[in-house]
Amino acid sequence: MTAQGIDRALTAAFGQDQAPWAPYTWPETLRHLLDGYLLGVERGWHFAELEQEPWLGVKRDRDRLADHPRLDRELARFDAPGRRSRLRTGGEGVLRMALADQAWSTLDCASTVETVYGDQEGARLGPNSHKRGRPSYHPWT
Description:
The chain is mainly alpha-helical. The protein contains 5 helices and 3 strands, in the order H-H-H-H-H-E-E-E.
């Protein structure tokens, strides 16, 4: 699957969801988040390191990418009705395109425990090998 296929799927799912004067479209913002995640960014404020990343700037035809406060505000908009289902639909479309030409595929399910500090909703005590006894998120519990 090519990068253009991912961009097309995001555009199909979210189109022109932003105001005409917005500096970044929704598909651009989501692609920036996806690129960061694929590069190992785990926290929103880690995107500060990617704002002026030359290679990503060239790939996205931008001098500067969205800053992390903007990304945080955009992620908060996922509470809008229908937005999460559209992301799911777009993601399923990307997966279908990626797997369409594959003779076979492997699904590797790995889990990661995320330690939390404070009283975040949904965090609970569980298997946490790094910080035993700390509340954490685990995808399988």
